[in-house]
Amino acid sequence: MATDQGGSRHQQSRPVNVAERIYQQLKTDIFDFQLLPGDRFSESEIAKRMNASRTPVREALYRLERDGFVQVYFRSGWQVRPFDFQYFEELYDVRTLMETAAVRRLCGLEDPAAHLQELTNHWCVTPDKRLSDSDQVAELDENFHFQLVALAGNKEMALLHRSVCERLRIIRRLDFTQRGRIAATYEEHRHILALIGQRHGDAVVAELSGHIESSKNTVRAITLQRIQEAKSRYNLNIRV
Description:
Blueprint: H1 2-31, E1 40-41, H2 43-50, H3 54-66, E2 70-73, E3 77-80, H4 85-107, H5 112-115, H6 117-123, H7 134-151, H8 155-172, H9 181-197, H10 201-234
Antiparallel strand pairs: 1-3, 2-3
């Protein structure tokens, strides 16, 4: 009897695992521009490609829709969400407002440096101890900004900030594929932490705003380049 229950639990868990696999693969395909902005497809096409039934495919697609990567047309299937740079500009504006408010609050603490020790351990290191893998640095960079906002102590703002950053992730991760951006990020983060530790509110707001603006401009240029390369490779007429 226990064996049957265990087998039943295993069978019940399989669709979830398949849906997760499909979700991760489609997300990777979107991030790597194997599925291009504006591409349309059906659930049946994805199911055949993934060697899965339509149920986990549908679950994965609705999750991608909630994340903002695809959109559904009930009579004509699914589409990879076209890039709307105005949308991303607005997300960057919101992100900048929240992060600058957070660092101002941190500068108001009696001893802000004491709260920043973990970030200091990661970012204030000699060049020979810096990470060089772009994916690792992208994740570490995202956590840097998450922690700055979280340390400011407003839990609702931290949740909103994380939501905004997750919607920006599709383009932000490209920042560290550009030569020199990893080293620049280490230096900029080190400077931001130093200014917070010295409680220089106006200076750190200016530094952080410039840091985010630099990243935004870099990823916009790379995204346009990647889309154009994919457009040429597949000879598709993609509007950007």
